[in-house]
Amino acid sequence: MCLLNTNLLIAQTTIKKVNDLLTREMKEQKIPGLELVVIKDKKIVLSEAKGVANIEFSVPVTDTTIFSINSIAKVFTGTAIMQLVEKGKINLDNAVGDYLDSLPVNWQKVTLKQLLGHISGLPDIEDDFTGGLVGNKGEDTAWKVVQTMPLQFKPGEQFSYNATNYLLLQKIIEKFGKLPFEQYIQQHQLDIIGMRKTMFGNSFEVEKGKAPTYMYYEKDKNTGEYIKSEKLIQTYENFPKTFRADAGMFSTANDMAKWLISLTSEHRLLNNSNSIETMWTPVKLNNGKTEGFGGILNGYALGWLVVDRSQHPAVAAIGGGRAAILVYPRDDLAIILFTNLSGCSPELIVDKIAKLYFNH
User: Which pTM was predicted?
Assistant: First the structure.
């Protein structure tokens, strides 16, 4: 009984510390609203909804609020690829030219693993300056234009995060999964788990319970750079259907918690832990090193960022600078934090929260 009471007191103390931390971060970064889920020892131990989902109408965040999770779509893509690997339909070390026809000659020897880890060297189909697609005339034109562009570097030489990689992976999933990408993810992941609040779409599409996304940045029309301001604005995001393997997902933290538990603990999405280990192993450059976004995110695996460090290593998924999932395999801990403010670095907030649960 004493042990039970002690554990309960520790849990209550930790929850208070987490809430205090969230309150402080929301105030300092002016985050309107967020949803947090903590999974410890394969169980949800905390689910918190704070702030407002919609500022204009003072709508509070609840555990069913749908947030834009943007590039977190890549973890669904990585899982879909591993599902096809388990079925023997594709091999990660094979060249993309083995699976897709009519690609430029200098693209054909890039491996699937290099695509997944963003070390392919392929030109980016997105235009960093405009924020749109190269060619500025839609998806079909962009696909034609990008195939005429030179490689950024020799495959495997460095890390370069770009949408072309996942566009090719989407084509492979559609070819060997025999379904359009969104339908494949729906049937082979979302429906299996019962993720009824998770969907693909665009920021301007109306969905009950969906929160807008805000930011304190404005784009300089002359330089294409985003400059921080004091003015809060809504973001406008259009995710082309041919790029859904790269971005364009919306979900709740509780839906994602179900997905994560199903993936890692119940093995309902992948048949064995070896597949998960493969998916979470950083892809190495030709020199044997790994690269990522920098900071704690120093590697990239198969749709997952990697936090490679001696103490409490982790894998991460980040979307739009506003949504983050971090999994700490050695600590049997996972934390999901979705917010409606781009640029708030939720992965750093999550890593602070994780420290409160280490060694429990």
Answer: 0.94
Would you state the structure tokens that stand for residue 192, as one six-digit string? Answer: 């299996």
* Mean pLDDT score, 296-302: 95
Domain boundaries, the chain: 2-355
**CB 97 within 8 Å of CB 103:** yes
DSSP 101: S
Place of tokens 């555990």: 63
The CATH architecture that domain 2-355 belongs to is 3-Layer(aba) Sandwich (3.40)
If one compares 99 and 235, the residue with the highest pLDDT of the two is: 99
Residues in the chain: 360
CA R_g for the chain: 20
Per residue, the 3-state secondary structure of 199-250, as one string, reads EECCCCCCCCCECCCEEEEEECCCCCCEEEEEEEEECCCCCCHHHCCCCCEE
pLDDT of residue 2: 56
d(CA 355, CA 351) in angstroms, rounded, equals 7
pLDDT of residue 7 exceeding 70, the answer is no
Contact 312, 330 (CB under 8 A): yes
- The predicted structure's pLDDT at residue 266: 83
Mean pLDDT on 143-161: 95
d(CA 334, CA 352): 13
